[in-house]
Amino acid sequence: MKVELAIVGAGISGAAAALLAKASGLERVLATEYEDRMGGLLRGLFAGPSFAEEAELMRRAAELPYEFRFRAAATSLFFDEDRGTHLIGLQGPAGHEDVEAERVLLCSGAFEKPREARRIPGSRPAGVMTPTMSVGLLDRGYVPGRRVLLAGRGRVVDGAERRLKERGVSVERLDPALWDIAGVQGRERVDGVLARHVASGEERLWPCDAFVYAEGRIPCTFYLKGSDIERDENHAVVVDEAGRTNAYRVSAAGSCSSAGDDEHRSSAEQARRALASLLSWDD
C-alpha cells in the first residue's frame, strides 16, 4: 500500500491533521490507530464540556473519505533511499503490513506517567491507576472504587472526576501543588494514601479504596527505536517550531512531540501547523 500521507495516531492531533489534509486536496491518506476507534486514550473524556471542541473534531474527522486503520500498532519507521519514501511497519489483527508513504506525520500520543515513574513509596496493591485508566474501566462497565482519592490538576483530571461522580463514586481531590504523595498503603487493595503538606510538613492519611494519580506523560514513540528520528531524554520526538523532525518529510505533533503539553490543549493547532509545513517541505 502506498499513500501520499501516513498519519500515525488518530487522537486529537491526528484527527486535526486528517481534516487539513482533506482541505489541502490530498486523496491517498492513511491514518493508523492503536485503539479500536478514534480519539486515542482520551476518547472517554470527550463527552464532557472540557473537551467539547475535541469531540466536534472527532465527529468531523469520522466523516472523511480516508481509511482509518484501527487496532493497528506502528512497529517501525524507516526511510527507503532507493524509493525516496518511508516504510511504516504496522501490526494489526490480520498480521504485519508495510505501508509506503511519501510523507509521515507522527501523532501517536502519550501515556500518563503512573506512580511507578515517580517512585512513590509504599505497597503495590490493586486500585492504583491513572485518570484515563479509570475512565477506561468505566467505559467497560467496571467501577474502579467507591471511595476514590484523585490527585492532580487540569482538564483530564477534571474529566475523570466528572465521569466517576456520574457513576455514583465518592471522589476526594488532592492538589499536588499543596501535597506531596508520601506513600501508598494497603495489602491486596489500596486502603489509604499518605500525603505531606508542602508548606507545613504536616502528614495526613487519606482513606480510599482507589487512588487515581498521574503526573507528566510518556510519549508513545517506542516504534521509532532504531530509526534516525531524534528523540529527547523523555522519548519525545524532537521538532522545530514548524513541527519538523530531523528526518526528511517526517513531522510530529501533539503529546508524542517535544512541543506537546500534558493537557493536550495545543495538540490540534500543532497538528495543523506541522502538516502545513510537511506539505511544503520541498517548496
In words, what does this structure look like?
The chain is an alpha/beta fold and 283 residues long. The protein folds into 2 domains: 2-111 and 217-279, FAD/NAD(P)-binding domain (3-Layer(bba) Sandwich); 114-213, FAD/NAD(P)-binding domain (3-Layer(bba) Sandwich). The protein is built from 5 helices and 16 strands. It has helices at residues 12-23, 52-61, 131-139, 155-166, 267-279, and strands at residues 2-8, 29-33, 67-70, 73-80, 85-92, 95-106, 110-112, 128-129, 147-151, 170-174, 179-186, 190-197, 203-207, 210-213, 217-219, 250-252. The longest helix has 13 residues, at 267-279. The protein starts with a strand and ends with a helix. Keywords: Oxidoreductase. GO terms for molecular function: oxidoreductase activity. InterPro entries: FAD/NAD-bd_sf, FAD/NAD-binding_dom, Metab_Enz_Cyan_OpOx_G3PDH. This is Thioredoxin reductase.
Residue share in helix: 10-25%
How much of the sequence is in beta strands?
25-35%
CATH class call of the largest domain: Alpha Beta
**Shape label:** elongated
- Spans of 5+ residues with little confidence (pLDDT < 50)? none
How many distinct folded domains?
2
| Distance linking N and C termini | 26 Å
